[in-house]
Amino acid sequence: MRANYRMQRLFVKVPLSEGATVTPDTAQTHYLLHVLRMVEGAEVLVFNGVDGEWRARLGHASKKLVTLTAVEQTRPQPDPSPLLFCFAPLKVGRLDYLVQKAVEMGAGTIQPVMTQHTQGAAPRRDKMQANAVEAAEQCGVLAVPAIEDAVKLDALLDGWDASRRLVFCDEDAPGDGPLAALQALGPSPVALLVGPEGGFSDAERQRLRALPFVTAIPLGPRILRADTAAVAALALVQATLGDWR
Asked: For the purposes of burial, counting CB atoms within 10 Å of the CB of 110, is it exposed (0-12), middle (13-18) or buried (19 or more)?
């Protein structure tokens, strides 16, 4: 069932069921009352990433406090997405974009990975979480992805579960078309790895190619920026192996 884009959506951190009362946080209350200028009896959609989406009605409202009562479930909670999205962090503005697009594209877990050519410090987990929530509210996603702390690439590979296939975007992979390589993969869980602006180092690429659970794919004849490559690769994986099939 597709999202209702005509109603405002709010992510909340409390259990949801018929008759449950929700007290929005200070920022949400300000938005509802002073930006949207909603009044008692108005309705919004609420979700918590666990109990599905609910239509909720504004009850008591003052200048600083509002309550919401869950009236009816509008969509059930879907199964968690198995897609693990691993990426080398980018500069702040483009990092925000990348996290938002990963949420929109259906990633179940978002894992920053520090590579040899990654520029800057590890990203803040709380900031990425806020971006993920905002993207979920805006695009109708019910399951907010898990946000992991950044890890070094070697540590990620050392602890890898070999039952999960790792697809990595390799600008030196032969050919231009990724579809044949993706379509040849079995039904095992999949992860996607996208490198930094400077690409993977030779040593990183050699290690990745030597691992039995890794599949390298090209992304066409043009050099793509890292955020563009990520969105393109997520679309390819979802179309061939994920929930776009």
From this structure: buried
Which residue intervals of the chain are DSSP H helices?
A: 26-30, 92-104, 125-139, 153-158, 179-183, 202-210, 226-240
- In 3D, which of 173, 213, 163, 169 has the Cα closest to residue 193? 169
Two tokens, residue 15: 């259990």
| Phi and psi at residue 204, to the nearest 5° | -65, -45
Q: What is d(CA 233, CA 127) in angstroms, rounded to the nearest whole number?
A: 24
pLDDT tens digits along 212-225: 999 999 888 888 88
Cα 70 to Cα 12, 30, 39, 200, distances in angstroms = 12, 20, 16, 48
Domains, the chain, with CATH or none: 9-75 (2.40.240.20), 84-240 (3.40.1280.10)
Q: Do β-strands 84-87 and 190-194 pair in parallel, antiparallel, or remain unpaired?
A: parallel
Bridge partners, residue 57, by sequence: 43, 69
**H or E segment at 236?**
helix 226-240
Contact 86, 160 (CB under 8 A): no
pTM: 0.91
Tell me whether strands 66-75 and 21-22 are parallel, antiparallel or unpaired.
antiparallel
> Token digits for 175?
């050919």
